[in-house]
Amino acid sequence: MRDSVGAGQQVRGTCLIVDDSRVIRKIGSKIAAALGYKVIEAENGEEALARCKLGMPELILTDWQMPVMSGIEFVTQLRAIPTPIAPKVMFCTSKGSARDVHDGIKAGADDYIVKPFDEAALKAKLEKLGLH
Known about the structure:
Blueprint: E1 13-18, H1 22-34, E2 37-42, H2 45-54, E3 59-62, H3 71-78, E4 88-93, H4 98-107, E5 111-114, H5 119-128
Parallel strand pairs: 1-2, 1-3, 3-4, 4-5
Helix pairs in contact: 2-3
């Protein structure tokens, strides 16, 4: 597990980055830390679900296509966990058709961003969700 937050940043909460690509997790972590989040990582939905059961993050950025447990399965199971405050969930994926967006939101995601994305695009999505 990797923990990080941008130097001199006020911590906004915890952000869980879920992606089977180490490179994508590193990029997502860098952006989230720069936005003031304490970052933890998981490489698949099963690992992410276990981390959420230990302590629910405020924000989850998850890939769609992963081994072991897909993003859709992860979000569906995540939403079944009782929690006082539900985390904001955003799919970060290369699947960008209208049908994919609909399926992601139907599974319980709050928003959707298509890869590749940059800090400005992610920040804009977080503002829309009331998180930045």
